[in-house]
Description:
By secondary structure, the chain is an alpha+beta fold. The protein has 2 domains: about 10-220, 2-Layer Sandwich (BirA Bifunctional Protein, domain 2); about 230-275, SH3 type barrels (Roll).
Amino acid sequence: MIVQNHKTASPAIALEPLQADSIRDFLTNQGTSTQYRIDVLPTVTSTNDYLAELGLAGTGCVAVCIADQQTQGKGRFGHSWWSPAGVNLYLSMQWGLQQWRTRYEVLGLWLLIAIAQLLEQLGTTGVRLKWPNDICVGGKKLGGILIERRGAVEQHSLIIGVGLNVAMSQADEFQETPGWVDLLSVHPDWRQCRNELAAHVIEVLNCVLGTLDDSDPEDLCSAWDRYDSLSNQRVKFLYQDRHMYGEVKGIDAQGCIVMRVNGEDLHLHSAHVRELRL
């Protein structure tokens, strides 16, 4: 359940320092029953890399890393993710791979949908999702996720990275980064500090990971369709090193994008599609 506080909206609220104890307090207030290891760091190369280097795969520990800044934040295919200090949420969670070994694509889309629903519950309007991993408002990037499989073969785990632009408009470099937007800009009455937002995101990830096996694959298509920013759009994309054009016709129950190319519907996995652009 989302419990809104009633502080006056201001950048100062969004910029409150990140604190592990504060995040745990918010989780307690939300009624969480899961025990998390939460590491909050002033700076890190990448929150995903930090969790991978802890070596907790296979231990059953649900570990979370949150950083004030990433010096080598990353997106798909090694692309950089700009991560200025003190203004955004950079969060990663490690979870045992278990049944999602063959449902990797589906998991990523359900997580995006859950985060979009969370942002709506917190009062953000116009949230859209761009397959396979972007969260957008007004055609600009608000955030995204990156899921990686790490660990030895017998101890595979998922590391799920979430980046949300909270108050990036307060960073000096913001004017130099077109195509991005933050929560303060799209939601003038934003009332969440980053600690409270982090607690909400942790619980959303935990809920999806804990219930995915019970979900109906057909439900994914209808849930995604509500937020799909590319539906019926003509796009240019790179497929297996070949530039192609097509019309997006949604996704399938396996999480692949359905692309109509020359009258034929192709079902494409995200591992093979790059540079998807309108």
